Amino acid sequence: MSRLVKKSPSLCTDLPLDNTVICNKLHLLRQLLKSCFGPTGRLKQVHNNIGGHVVTTSTSSVLLPAISSSQSFVNLIKTSILNHVSRFSDCGLFAAILCLSLIEQANQSGLSGSVAIGLNKHLLGLCTSYLQREDCGCKVKLDFCSSHNLITLASSIISSKPACVLTESEVLHISKLSVQAFLLTVPCNSPGEVRLGQIVSISVEGHPVLNSAVFPGLLVDTPDDLCLDKSENQHSNPLRLVLFSASLAGDLSELGDGKIDVHPGVDTDSQILDQLLELVKQVVKDEVKVFMCQKVIHPVVQQYLKRHGVIVIERLGITLMEPLTQLTGAQPVATLNTTIPAKAYGKVKDLSILQFGSKTMLHLQPPGESSICTMILCHRNETMLSELKVACQKTEHVLRLTLREPSALLGEHEGSHRDRIGPRVLTDGAPSRRGRFLSLSGVCGRSAGARRRGFCDGSDSCSPLDSPCRCHERAGG
Asked: How far apart are CA 240 and CA 290, in angstroms?
């Protein structure tokens, strides 16, 4: 039996920045993130001290969760940065480096904590007020009548992930697909409140990046032996679909909570199977052509449905349930004890089978306008594919933010933000405090200058304005 150790009480410390150990760990974290940043940023391989899965990335949303620390203050900083990334989906590395640099510089300046906080708040107010002005020279309006700016914005995000290992043509191809998928999620003729759709990403390993594609509708994995009756798709009427969120495996535990009385000599498995068969008989009677379940379907039930010409798809998983309900209008059936109401059935316009590598997928097309689409992402190996999927998800989020604020920050080659915002900080600040402004704002100046030297390449690049610290970077978070 292992030795029991009494749990030590929580420890609250005052002035954590006076602790040399904490300061050294913050400095180490800043150096680690800084080495991932910019055009010469390098990848990091992270694993725990007993082995396990190795994470290869330079993306902040992947790198920071993989790093653990025993210091609560370091974890607090890390959590705040991850919150920034979850809100803006971009610029995580820059925000982290800026945050850690401000802490380090304020600690070295000898200023009291209240004074440093006040100066930082004042500087942030000056920068934010300038960026929100109509005559701000750092931002440009995004024109949704043309896809050029959106593709450029998407390209600036995707090209900043070196672990994706993309050529220029591949970056352009993925950028166009990201914009295409984003536009498909914006409904065209929806009265009242507009609700954006979803992009479902499917990864296909071992195929060229240029094989990636976007399809309107939804693609779901299917068995290899699935065969479609072409005559079903020639009808003008949509095909009826039913969607189950409850398990149809026939297990006693799946019947729900409560007390169950079992009489001696009664075969419970047969009774449950009979109940399932009665349920699917109603489905067949209602002329359902597509039968889908989030969980497992009993083999006898599957055989019965297939014998009556019904397409059976099981093990969908919870992530596909919401897109399916939006696409088909079906209401997930969560119980086996009642008859299925007619309003619970959904509809699909057309069905087809697509083959991508070793994956066989069923393509569901909506009966009318739908804001659900599927993006097939291809790459040469698992690490590159995983990083590409994260990059595309970040791009989708940033493009959605442009609907709320259709503006973007110019890239560094268009004129340094430091050159434009720096004079505003100096002229708007009181002369007696200008020296203190310089000591703390120099962090931003050195960071912007380093990026500026690396990015004067003449390419067009934009950055979303929603993130106050967003600047163009080629290896950012």
From this structure: 7
For every residue of 189-212, DSSP letters joined together read: S--SS----EEEEEEEETS-GGG-
H or E, element range at 137: none
DSSP per-residue codes, 90-131? S-HHHHHHHHHHHHHHHHHHT--HHHHHHHHHHHHHHHHHHH
The type of residue at 223 is P
Dihedral sign from CA coordinates of 166, 168, 171, 173: negative
Whether 214 contacts 181, CB under 8 Å = yes
Q: What is the pLDDT of residues 221-250, one digit of tens each?
A: 887 777 776 655 545 578 999 999 988 887
C-alpha count within 13 angstroms, C-beta hemisphere, residue 187: 16
CA–CA distance, 407 with 144 (Å, rounded to integer): 11
Average confidence score pLDDT of the chain: 80
Q: Specify burial of residue 18 (Cβ count, 10 A radius: 0-12, 13-18, 19+).
A: exposed
Residue 449 confidence (pLDDT): 41
The token pair that represents 112 in the structure block = 């009291």
Residues near 383 by Cβ (< 8 Å), separated by ≥ 6? 56, 163
Instruction: Please give the C-alpha separations between residue 14 and each of 23, 50, 73, 180, 429, in angstroms, as whole numbers.
Output: 14, 33, 11, 52, 32
244 CB-contact burial (10 Å; exposed 0-12 / middle 13-18 / buried 19+): buried
Rounded to whole angstroms, how far apart are CA atoms 167 and 174? Answer: 11
* Average pLDDT over every residue of 79-107: 88
Phi, psi angles (nearest 5°) of residue 407: -140, 155
Cα separation values, 66 from 30, 80, 374, Å: 15, 15, 29
Other Cβ atoms less than 10 A from the Cβ of 87: the count is: 12
Rg (C-alpha) for the chain, rounded Å, is 28
Beta bridge partners of 200: 374
Element (H, E) at 280: helix 268-285
Q: Are strands 239-244 and 290-293 parallel, antiparallel or unpaired?
A: parallel
Distance CA 108, CA 111 (A): 8
> 372 pairs with which residues across the strands?
198
At 48, list the tokens: 């725990």
| Residues 408 and 153: beta-carbon distance below 8 Å | yes
Q: Cα separation of 69 and 81, whole Å?
A: 15
Q: Is 60 exceeded by the pLDDT of residue 139?
A: yes
User: Cβ atoms within 10 A of the Cβ of 353, count?
Assistant: 13
More confident residue, 265 or 197: 197
**Tokens 């920045």 — which residue?**
17
Token representation of residue 174: 């993925």
Q: How far apart are CA 51 and CA 78, in angstroms?
A: 23
Partners of 51 in beta bridges: 48
Sign of CA dihedral 449, 453, 455, 457: positive
